[in-house]
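pasting for ref. prot 1 ->
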Amino acid sequence: MIKLLVSVRNAGEAEEALRGGADWLDIKEPAAGPLGAAGREVWWQVASVLEPGVPCSVALGELIDGQLPLEHIPPLCKFAKVGLARMADLDWSRQWIDVRRRLPPGTELAAVVYADWRAAGSPPPDAILHVAQQTGTRAVLFDTYGKKYSIFGCIEPRLLGRWIERVQRAGMLAVLAGSINQASLGVALALKPDLIAVRGAACEGGRLGCVSAARVARLAQLIRSARAAPAVFS
């Protein structure tokens, strides 16, 4: 069953997302990049307004930038995401595994695959998926490093669908992001990820604007309709 993840930058946005029916909250600072860390104070403020049964994750930034605030992650956070931009020619797998080892108990490291990996200077998707499978990773996020275009503008949906199937066959959660909006939601739903992640589509004023409960509710309604009638999006 596909669920809706909404990225929020503070507790006020978290409350809006919850009112709109978000199934999952992700905490990040969109002005700091695709996986910009919001900071420990914001993490704990959002954690304080979480409703029972609503999972939470955090973005930690890019691995190459270092100084990841691992020790400050709230215990309610199921996953932490670290990007691999500009690490294609470095020993990224060893460093990534080390970050995973240092996460607090109860928080898993999610692998991040940038569909525009060449522009991001990231390792290719197949390499990341291989390491994720070999290390027992629990979730993979498919996203874009650049936010001027949709994920479907830089990768063929059929190939993306094969990656999602590979992740799910390996027992991992497949999370699909990358500037997905109402116009492209049908394509996203047809690929059957476990979670569809949005930021800009849930905001008034784009991804740097503010999360709107009404916008979240509309997205949640479209996903619920797809659950009831999946053939519409086949």
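and prot 2 ->
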Amino acid sequence: MRLILLGGPGAGKGTQAAKLKEHYGIPHISTGEVLREARAAGTELGKKAAEYMDAGKLLPDNIILGIVSDKMDMPDMKNGFLFDGFPRTIPQAKGLDKILQEKGQALDSVVSIDVNDGIVIDRLLKRSEIEGRADDNRETIENRLKVYYEQTEPLKDYYKGCGLLKSIDGVGTVDEIFERIKAVLS
């Protein structure tokens, strides 16, 4: 299973990714983790990524795509994967398409976990209280949503055009949402 999870901040992608990883026996790839691994390994791309990360800048697509491509060559990726947080933009999606084509692979599905903004804001403010996360204040959450709608939301139309998009209602219990995802994937 080669899968991408889409959804705004607070949609529950990380929670569902953990369940999908276990259910399908595939690695869950978070770009943040991949970037930190590449940096720690001291690879050429990891060193370039570190320069941008240390300066607080967004990484150019070519670096992100290079690191993702390297990660996809790992033995545990041969039977499938689950991307969460990647791709974030149409150029990254097109770059991923090219990488997959070069490796003789294709995506099986793209699942969008859809949750309205009011619920997302409530979820993230509650998470902030529980976990003490300073980055989950209302202003930051609203900005993250704005960035999501500008940069990542267009991926839904892109993948719909590719015949890969499956949207599910992201409101309910963790298990209810997981059952919805399994249903659209079967």
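The first strand starts at residue 2 and ends at 6.
The chain is about 60% helix and 10% strand.
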